[in-house]
Amino acid sequence: MGPAKKPDSTATGQRKARIEEMRRADRSRERRNRLLVIAASVVVVVGLAVGGVVLVQSRSDDGTPVAKESASGSASSGMDGKSGKDGNGKNGKGTSGHFETGKDGVRTWKGTLGRTHTTDPVTYPMEPPVGGDHNPVWQNCNGDVYTAPLKNEHAVHALEHGAVWVTYDAKAPKADVDALAAKVRRTPYSLMSPVADQKDPIMLSAWAHQRTVTGAADPNVDAFFAQFVQGPQTPEPGAACTGGVDR
Length: 247
Description:
The protein is α/β, with parallel strands linked by helices. The protein has helices spanning 9-57, 152-160, 174-185, 219-228; strands at residues 96-101, 107-112, 142-145, 164-168, 190-194, 202-206, 209-212. Helix 3 (174-185) links the parallel strand 4 (164-168) and strand 5 (190-194).
């Protein structure tokens, strides 16, 4: 395998500008979300008050509550089209395929990666996972470095938002772990955590892409970040990397 090409400085500058623009949009989105939460709380309180009045008025003469159907004639499940399990009651139905390794050493998932939201555990065909069904709440990935293992279901959601996930096991040299942590902290749309069961000491993952690196000084680290941080593989470009799970 030949050495990785040095990322084009113009493309890197454009990517940095785009990330900074996304960070500003992220902060604006957070402020808007706080206002929406306040408004939603008011609506819930009013709805509970109105519901109490309706319940009292809908009792029969003998004091027994009268059952009412929804407009569709059945109770709502509270799920949308991207929530819960698939039709067979199992997770991960939408994920199938295999990795193919390119000349640059990057493994690309050839097949399909599910994107269904579920609060149940998901079994992934690779470790760490590079996509698939995942939790509705993403892992914070605004240059976040975690010293404890994460739930894959949250981390995969971060990959869906365009993050690069740096992972390491107990065999990774501490100097490399520290240097990579410093790089992640400087890079929006990235995160880092230990993964005990991965096949190599240091690995980099993005949605549908993954590679092994020899250490923090490996030029493939910069090449992978340059290509995949908010890269073209991102299913939801510009989606938030803050406001999710932070532990």
